[in-house]
Design brief:
mainly alpha, LemA-like_dom_sf, LemA family protein
């Protein structure tokens, strides 16, 4: 009888360990799915920002030098290879800050026909990029923390999923674009 009780407790202990490991692997899988979704959202926001910047650069409302700088940075950001994407997106952020350094450029955009919608679109795109990047990097941070645990490494619970990488870029928006209307008055 004692051998049967020992066997029963061993089976129960192994079942609990198996359930825990299965739960951990599922959690890791959900984190990787969350990273994929956040990466897709980040890509969409970056593409939107570059598209709006290109539209403004070709609309003829900015001075020629600003248009060229903004168009080239937006074009480079849209065409960048994955390895150089962070640098290209940072350069677009710098170009946006340079072009919209003072309030006069954004006011010129707003005064043009259809400019109020264009300005609102640009403001929305510029504000959403840091949020999307933060969501992505938070998901990466959580997955990395779980993947650092010994049980995950030793038992290879991550499978063949690549190690998640954060998206690091300069995403500081131009102050003239993010200033509230009551701040400007």
């Amino acid at each position: 009888m004692p051998a049967l009780a020992t066997l029963l407790w061993t089976v129960v202990a192994l079942a609990l360990v198996g359930i825990y490991l299965s739960w951990t692997a599922g959690r890791l899988d959900r984190l990787h799915a969350r990273i994929d979704a956040a990466k897709a959202a980040l890509d969409a926001q970056l593409l939107r920002r570059a598209s709006v910047a290109q539209e403004l650069a070709t609309a003829g409302v900015l001075d020629p030098a600003a248009s060229i700088v903004l168009y080239q940075a937006a074009h480079d950001a849209r065409q960048a290879e994955e390895d150089h994407r962070e640098v290209a997106e940072s350069e677009l952020s710098q170009a946006l800050r340079a072009v919209f350094a003072d309030r006069a450029q954004i006011d010129a955009v707003r005064e043009a026909p259809g400019g109020e919608e264009s300005a609102a679109e640009l403001v929305a795109a510029v504000r959403r990029v840091p949020m999307a990047r933060r969501f992505h990097n938070d998901a990466v941070r959580a997955a990395r923390a779980l993947r650092r645990h010994r049980k995950v490494r030793w038992l290879r619970l991550a499978g063949h999923a690549p190690f998640p990488l954060a998206f690091e870029m300069d995403d500081e928006p131009p102050p003239a674009l993010t200033a509230r209307a009551d701040d400007a008055a």
